[in-house]
From TrEMBL:
Pfam families: HTH_3. This is HTH cro/C1-type domain-containing protein. PROSITE patterns: HTH_CROC1. One of its GO terms (molecular function) is DNA binding. It comes from Polaribacter glomeratus. The lineage of its organism: Bacteria, Pseudomonadati, Bacteroidota, Flavobacteriia, Flavobacteriales. Residues 20-74 form the HTH cro/C1-type domain.
Length: 79
């Protein structure tokens, strides 16, 4: 992958993580609350949300499910 493409993909990735954090906060959940719903430790979830641990598609969909958001709704206003 070219450097410019890699940078764009990384920017989208971190935009997704920011949106997850925003949706979590809008739902009134702390990182610990969502971690417990997902069966993760609080530090494990923190690492996912901060991009330290890579977010795979299965975990992404689990997060959306716990936040009661469909993938379509999540990406509706995605830039």
């Amino acid at each position: 992958m070219k450097e410019k493409e890699r940078e764009k993909v990384e920017n989208y990735y971190f935009e997704i993580l920011r949106k997850i954090a925003n949706k979590r906060a809008e739902a009134g959940l702390s990182q610990i609350d969502l971690a417990l719903k997902l069966g993760l430790t609080d530090s494990g979830y923190f690492k996912v949300e901060k991009g330290i641990t890579k977010l795979d598609i299965q975990r992404f969909l689990s997060i959306l499910y716990k936040l009661d958001i469909s993938p379509k709704e999540f990406f509706e206003d995605f830039n």
